[in-house]
Amino acid sequence: TEACLSAIEGASALNAFVHRTPERAQEMAAEADKRIRSGDAPALCGIPMGIKDLFCTKGVPSQAASRILENFVPEYESTVTQQLFDAGAVMLGKLNMDEFAMGSSNETSVYGNAVNPWRRGNEATELTPGGSSGGSASAVAAGLCLAATGTDTGGSIRQPAAFTGITGIKPTYGRCSRWGIVAFASSLDQAGPMTRDVRDAAIVLQAMCGHDPKDSTSADLPVPDFEAMLTGDIRGKTIGIPREYRMDGMPEEIEALWAEGRRMLEDAGARIVDISLPHTKYALPCYYVIAPAEASSNLARYDGVRYGHRAKLAQGDGIVEMYEKTRAEGFGPEVQRRVMVGTYVLSAGFYDAYYNRARKVRTLIKKDFEDAFAEGVDAILTPATPSAAFGLGEMTEADPVAMYLNDVFTVTVNLAGLPGISVPAGQDRSGLPLGLQLIGRPWEEGDLLNTAYALE
Ligand code: GLN
């Protein structure tokens, strides 16, 4: 804990931690020392972790990187962070992210962007750590903490993991409780760990999972011992390579990475089959209807009354002006865009044309995966991202849709509710890390982790 705290001090240029809790960390670490001495050390006893700002942490500011939650200090602890602390984890502080987890570069944060510890060769250009869990990725990659929590609605664990050379797993929808995590798109949001390697991911995920009666979508299923399942033996497993993920204009190095992953799994004794997931091309538009629709509804609660920021009002302003001014000041441009798109696709005249249509497409996307699994596929291998980390500002100058294209390989997994993992698997020409994604059957995170283990 002390080593991490001083590393965090020395790495403020990364802007990964947006709120530090050193005293609390020292206390928690001292408590962990006691437990270790008494021979009663749980799995994460004394492990220093960072917590994404999207998680409500009792008595510690939790702002979802938004101005609208300025000065919001929750009275309660999210289920997932409570479980981590029960397992002995030490909280070092809160981590940077895109505002309300909307983004792929951590550039929509009210705290300013986090920075990727990697550089292209000797270039000075600062790169994005990805998003939305950019602070989590940057902190783990730079060794500021041993693990971090992330959340993934459309790739926000897997894409930043790939951009920073670390491991990140989004478990099956319903595996981790969403209680106490600021909601973005409730039917897609899942928490998961971001770690240095697959074994750490298995250990931390174990502590995060489990049934929670406070989240109606949390699954009442036993949580297997994920670490014990890491045998590295994947002989006889069938790995599907979906042809629709081979896109026009895909950089050669991403192609090469994918081929290398395929070879590694084959060498480890897996059977590789080409598969088709025919509705893949509709995934991005489908996601960018459903996620904003749910977000517009979830974010309606930020009205200047119940939480955080309230705009200064002028003489004669009524409640409507208070809502309008507060929301105009409190939400950044990307969040406002999502609320407007979401409100539009849910409006009476367009509901059937957009929202209902997207829900039907979502069912088809899910069915594509079900069909592949029914044919005996155990896991699906794809690149995690269409490129390596890009420069800060590089994408924000383009139109917002260019940023959305980053999520092309990851959003299908959230739409289908499946577990997905990104593992570091190579480098681009300038030495930047690249990630491979494995997608697993529902509730089979243990198998998925073990397949990923074979790629390490
Ligand atoms: N980049 C995606 C978005 O902006 C995913 C975000 C996430 O997974 N939280 O919606």
UniProtKB/TrEMBL annotation:
Active site: residue positions: 52 (charge relay system), 132 (charge relay system), 156 (acyl-ester intermediate)
Q: Which InterPro entries match?
A: Amidase, Amidase_CS, Amidase_dom, AS_sf, GatA
Q: Which UniProt keywords apply?
A: ATP-binding, Ligase, Nucleotide-binding, Protein biosynthesis, Transferase
Start and end of every Amidase domain? 1-449
Q: What is this enzyme's EC?
A: 6.3.5.7
Q: Which GO terms describe its molecular function?
A: ATP binding; glutaminyl-tRNA synthase (glutamine-hydrolyzing) activity; transferase activity
Q: In the UniProt record, which is one GO cellular component term?
A: glutamyl-tRNA(Gln) amidotransferase complex
Q: Which SUPFAM superfamilies match?
A: Amidase signature (AS) enzymes (SSF75304)
Q: Which Pfam families does this entry report, sorted A to Z? A: Amidase
Catalytic activity, as annotated: L-glutamyl-tRNA(Gln) + L-glutamine + ATP + H2O = L-glutaminyl-tRNA(Gln) + L-glutamate + ADP + phosphate + H(+)
Q: Name one GO biological process term.
A: translation
The similarity comment for this entry is: Belongs to the amidase family. GatA subfamily.
Quaternary structure note: Heterotrimer of A, B and C subunits.
Role: Allows the formation of correctly charged Gln-tRNA(Gln) through the transamidation of misacylated Glu-tRNA(Gln) in organisms which lack glutaminyl-tRNA synthetase. The reaction takes place in the presence of glutamine and ATP through an activated gamma-phospho-Glu-tRNA(Gln).
The UniProt entry, under PANTHER family, shows: GLUTAMYL-TRNA(GLN) AMIDOTRANSFERASE SUBUNIT A (PTHR11895:SF151), TRANSAMIDASE (PTHR11895)
What's the protein called, per UniProt?
Glutamyl-tRNA(Gln) amidotransferase subunit A
What species does this protein belong to? Roseivivax isoporae LMG 25204
Q: What is the lineage of its organism?
A: Bacteria, Pseudomonadati, Pseudomonadota, Alphaproteobacteria, Rhodobacterales
